[in-house]
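Quick one:
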Amino acid sequence: MSSWKLLVEGKDDQDFFNAFCNLVIGENKIDIFPPKALNENSGDGWSNLISNLPLLLSQLKNGDTEKLGIILDADYPPENSGGFHERYKKVTEKLAEVGYKIPTKPKLQKGDIFNHSDGLPNIGLWIMPDHKNNDMLESFVESLITDTTQASLLQHADKSINKLPVKLFNTQLHTSKAKVFTWRAWQEKPGSSLAGALYKNILDRSKASDFEAWLTHTFK
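Output:
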């Protein structure tokens, strides 16, 4: 087990960021955990991620964790304490409670790395999709779809969703998710994972330079 840890919202995020970290940082250098993997009595999702932060913070204190990164979705206000600034506040309040120095403003689009007043390891924070705007991981994925064929499939998925006779999902919160899941269904292997799309270069990592820089600095 690695002492470098990345906390994410759920299993799909775990698989995607495991692939991303393997490509950027190196194979198996970082252990990626959704909340339920840390605490079997916990569920996944952003609120459980935040409620389980004290467990990882205690591991920083005793040396079991050497480096820590946190990734969660911004989602949208006013739903469920959503929105970039509200989610940023929720996380940083927990960090401030144990002595991490929080700047007056987040480093928009660059990601944040927080220092501790007593010299504990730094903690990195990135809020999807771009550490600035409201939305989620799937919007970040959309920004990496640049190939002409793949982009045309994504555009058609968007048009198809707009023409649905009934939309049972929350259109503000989950349109991006619906679009990317539809796009995945139309791949050579229907339902192919986002991790697989990374490994096959279907997703263009060059469009994620700010995120890659944050990830590299968090785990340098």
